[in-house]
Structure formats: structure tokens, C-alpha cells
């Protein structure tokens, strides 16, 4: 438990004052953008930023503009009071929890049309192909938050591997000077990647969900003496054979371009990215096959 009192900020003016005071005190500032329903994965980002000596501002905002499925938005878990408590204990300096009106005063539709980000091909594959507009919405909120907070560093979890690539590209094309720090996936003891969506799983679904990571982890060894195509099929067939699980996509891609690889010799950085429905809950995970 930290003994520093955490500020709760609701408006961009309050954020500006908070950041100004931190800068006057000579502090570097980290932003940890989240949509709340916090878990140990989010807290590991706060911890990584604190270890670096940054004063940590965590944003907590379920961003309607990045949801292309209204049902998904409606049932997204919201646990603000519990989140505040966890962040205070984790030693966050401040939490920014704005209303939708504060962020999008002209409404969501107008926000969606306000600007088209140049996100390149990293936003067109995988999640970008299946969730039209999703990454534009992510870029919109993260760019707004970066411009409000002007952090030295932004911290993101590697579970959203593609999202990190998109945010790096957005910062570059928008000319936002911020270091993007990517942090390792946090997993439950049984291997399931921590996600706010896990709380939506029924007990039976929760029991099956760790199979996602197990199949990916086993496929690394399998990949040493099998082709990319066979490794792909190994994962998909294994997951699709389990109750509740249905693979939406599994792609084995170059870790930089995110384009599919056909042969292990094609790149020194190869990642497998999967999206699996567990019942109605959409879960994502990834595994590194080759690392530079
Ligand atoms: O990863 C998330 O939780 C969200 O996409 C983010 C980065 C907070 C933007 O809303």
C-alpha cells in the first residue's frame, strides 16, 4: 500500500494542472491508458513506470469510439470504485476518469469523423480487418490522451500486440514525442492471459480458456520441426476441438510488419496472434516463435 494520496481527475483542465505541478517538481510523467476493470496486468504497467521513476497517471475510460459492436460496449465491465482503490494501492499519482462528454463534447459520431489517422498496414491486418474502425478509435483516444497529458512515456501491455504497433505508428505520423513502452503479458497461474473480459466468462468457460495459452505454448516446440502452415493448423484444430472455443483468426506474422510469414526463415521476429471466442467472450493472446 502506497502512502501517497492519489488525485482523481475528471476534466482535461484538472489533468493540465496536475501535469504542470508534476513538471514544476521536476518529475517525469508516465501515462497508462486503460478502459478500467483493472487487473494485475494493468497494475504491472503502473509498477514498471514507477520503477523507472515516473509519476504515473492512469486513464480510465471505456472508449465508445473503438467499439464496433454495441453489445460488446454495453457489457464491457465497469468497476470504477474498485479500480480507484487498486490504483491508490499501486502508487499511481493520479487517475483520469473523464465522462464521454468531456472527451467527445460534439458526440461520438462527430468524433469518429473528426480525423482519419494514417496507421498504415499494421492497422489493416488481423483486428483491423475484423473490427472496422477499431484502430481509428484507439488512435483517436490515445492521441487525445497523449496531447492532454504530454507524457514522457506511455505504457501498454503486449497482450494487445497489434495495438502497440498501431500506437507507435500513430505517434510517429501525428508527430507526438512520446516513448512507447511495451510490457510483457501477465497471466493467471493456469496461463490465461489477464483481460478485463475474463470476468465475463462462466465458470465452465473459464476452465477451458487456459487452453488458448497451452495450445500456443505447445505450438512453439511443435514449430521447431514443422512448417508454418502445419503449426497454424496445429493451434486452430486443437482450439476448435475444445468446448466453447472457436478461433476467429490465428495468424503467424512478422513481428514488425505484422504481415503473414510462410516460412520460418523469412524473419528473425515471428509472432502468432490469435483471437478466440470462448462462448460469447472474445479473447486475444499471442506467442513469440522467433525473437531477434
Ligand atoms: O487497450 C486498451 O485497454 C484500450 O484499447 C486503450 C489503449 C486504453 C484505448 O482505449
Molecular structure report:
This protein is an alpha/beta fold and 292 residues long. It has two domains: 7-183, HUPs (Rossmann fold); 196-286, Pantoate-beta-alanine ligase, C-terminal domain (Pantoate--beta-alanine Ligase, Chain: A,domain 2), CATH 3.30.1300.10. 40% of the residues lie in helices and 20% in strands. It contains twelve helices and nine strands. The protein has helices at residues 12-24, 40-51, 70-74, 80-90, 100-103, 108-114, 127-130, 134-149, 161-174, 203-208, 211-223, 228-240, and strands at residues 7-9, 29-34, 55-60, 94-96, 153-157, 179-183, 245-254, 270-278, 281-290. The strands form two sheets. A six-stranded parallel beta sheet has the order 1-4-3-2-5-6, with helices on both faces. Helix 8 (134-149) packs across helix 9 (161-174) and helix 11 packs antiparallel against helix 12. 39% of the residues are buried. The mean pLDDT is 97. The protein binds pantoate.
Summarize the SSE layout with pairings.
Elements: E1 7-9, H1 12-24, E2 29-34, H2 40-51, E3 55-60, H3 70-74, H4 80-90, E4 94-96, H5 100-103, H6 108-114, H7 127-130, H8 134-149, E5 153-157, H9 161-174, E6 179-183, H10 203-208, H11 211-223, H12 228-240, E7 245-254, E8 270-278, E9 281-290
Parallel strand pairs: 1-4, 2-3, 2-5, 3-4, 5-6
Antiparallel strand pairs: 7-8, 8-9
Helix pairs in contact: 8-9, 11-12
Pantoate binds next to strand 2 and helix 8.
Amino acid at each position: 500500500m502506497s502512502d501517497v494520496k492519489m488525485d482523481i481527475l475528471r476534466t482535461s483542465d484538472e489533468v493540465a494542472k496536475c501535469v504542470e505541478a508534476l513538471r514544476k517538481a521536476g518529475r517525469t510523467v508516465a501515462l497508462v491508458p486503460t478502459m478500467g476493470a483493472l487487473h494485475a496486468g494493468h497494475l504491472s504497467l503502473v509498477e514498471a513506470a514507477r520503477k523507472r521513476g515516473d509519476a504515473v497517471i492512469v486513464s480510465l475510460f471505456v472508449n465508445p469510439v473503438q467499439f464496433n459492436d454495441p453489445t460488446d460496449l454495453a457489457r464491457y465491465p465497469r468497476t470504477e470504485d474498485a479500480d480507484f482503490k487498486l490504483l491508490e494501492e499501486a502508487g499511481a499519482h493520479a487517475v483520469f476518469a473523464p465522462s464521454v462528454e468531456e472527451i467527445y463534447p460534439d458526440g461520438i459520431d462527430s468524433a469518429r469523423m473528426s480525423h482519419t489517422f494514417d496507421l498504415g498496414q499494421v492497422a489493416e491486418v488481423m483486428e483491423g480487418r475484423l473490427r472496422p474502425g477499431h484502430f481509428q478509435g484507439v488512435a483517436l483516444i490515445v492521441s487525445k490522451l497523449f496531447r492532454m497529458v504530454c507524457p514522457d512515456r506511455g505504457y501498454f501491455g503486449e497482450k494487445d500486440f497489434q495495438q502497440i504497433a498501431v500506437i507507435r505508428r500513430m505517434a510517429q505520423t501525428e508527430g507526438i514525442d512520446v516513448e512507447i513502452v511495451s510490457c510483457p503479458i501477465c497471466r493467471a497461474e493456469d496461463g490465461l492471459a489477464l483481460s478485463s473480459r475474463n470476468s465475463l466468462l462462466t465458470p465452465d468457460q473459464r476452465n477451458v480458456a487456459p487452453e488458448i495459452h497451452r495450445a500456443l505454448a505447445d505450438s512453439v516446440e511443435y514449430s521447431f520441426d514443422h512448417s508454418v502452415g502445419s503449426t497454424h493448423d496445429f493451434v486452430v484444430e486443437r482450439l476448435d476441438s475444445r468446448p466453447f472455443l472457436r478461433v476467429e483468426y490465428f495468424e503467424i506474422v512478422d513481428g514488425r510488419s505484422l504481415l503473414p510469414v510462410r516460412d520460418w526463415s523469412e524473419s528473425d521476429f515471428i509472432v502468432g496472434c490469435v483471437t478466440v471466442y470462448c462462448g460469447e467472450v472474445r479473447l486475444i493472446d499471442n506467442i513469440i516463435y522467433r525473437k531477434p
